[in-house]
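User: Is it possible to get a 3D structure for a protein together with its bound compound? The compound here is magnesium ion. I've pasted both below.
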Amino acid sequence: MRVVVQKFGGTSVASRDSRLAAVRHVERALSEGYRVVVVVSAMGRKGDPYATDTLLSALDDADCVDKRDLDILLSCGETISAVVFAGLLRSRGHAVSVFTGPQAGILTNNQHGDARILEVRPERLFEALRAGHVAVVTGFQGATLDGEITTLGRGGSDTTATALGVALGAEYVDIFTDVDGIMTADPRIVEDARRLHQVTYSEICNLAYQGAKVIHPRAVEIAMQKNIPIRVRSTHSDDEGTLVTSATAVLESSALTDRYVTGITQAAPFAQLTVAGDRLPHSRVFADTAQRGISLDFILVTPTRISYTVHERQLDEAVSVLRDLDLEPYVVPDCARVAVVGAGIAGVPGIMAKVVCALADEGIDILQSADSHTTIWCLVRRTHMEAAVRALHRAFELGR
Ligand code: ADP
Ligand code: MG
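Assistant: Yes, that's possible. Here is the predicted structure of the complex:
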């Protein structure tokens, strides 16, 4: 049995027209002899009636809702979407079975709101596929062994799709979305961003972890474990999109290019906190901050200074940790992180020079920088974020 998993994101299932475009991809796969598992996200984006953000906004006070209850609410968007999509498939003469995440056998840990998949038990899906049905599965949902409903966090439907792909031994996992594939930068910011035709799992993992939200990094990691190719494609065209595979597969194809930068990413908003003094309680600062579940970036430690960034939503909490230690931080709010990402940058001279010149030419201050063997990060003011991404994209000649 040849199986493909096709995941359709929020905008791809938002309107009847989009759903019809999506259905055509399902029908194409069926006509090529595949058994198809469809994974759907909630319909639309913020503001649309059944989008996840809209469900959240129905609550009088989201902070007062139990995490377990919240997952029961949040999982509704995908449920509505799956039944609507299945209806359309049926109206076109297809045999269909709808499954919630738990019914599809997705077992997770009990970390509500950001649960990890522990195991997939795909027997019911196999049964439906063997009977010649299209299986329509709600993305983003799972359940604990005790049957508690969980959700997989933002972008979780991507993870559902690749986890099912692995469990079913799929030939491909198709991630259908509103852009032509994975680009060298967010096309909403960079007009001449170029589509990447073939990339390795690790390149895309880096890009996704640094903020390219076109695919969730965990989804890529899961597909990588069993070498299941992912195709990131547009719902509204027949283009092949971006093929994400192993390094060996890329090497074997003729698509190998001498690329050292994969792309430019951005993420916001962050705040930078700095404390300085002769007797800083270094270990308390980091231990207490960690204990409150605050994650840090751009960490800089010297004997007389500690500086780091936190996500803006954790700023108040981070400041209060420091005040409890009698430290008054200097805070730069509204910052953004832009990154040059590419497995080939290690050891190449002149990369940082290019970054610094590109940003200086635009009058953009680098508030702080950091680097690893695959990434150079710059912290800039949020108001400079788009210009910084465009400047770096130009400097590394990534455009069309
Ligand atoms: P979906 O609802 O289909 O999951 P998402 O909004 O999660 O869609 O992801 C698609 C969006 O990702 C695009 O509209 C685009 O603006 C954004 N994006 C950010 N970085 C990139 C990139 N490097 N390549 C393509 N799209 C990107
Ligand atoms: Mg997404």
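The chain has two domains: 3-178, 263-395. The chain has a mean pLDDT of 94.
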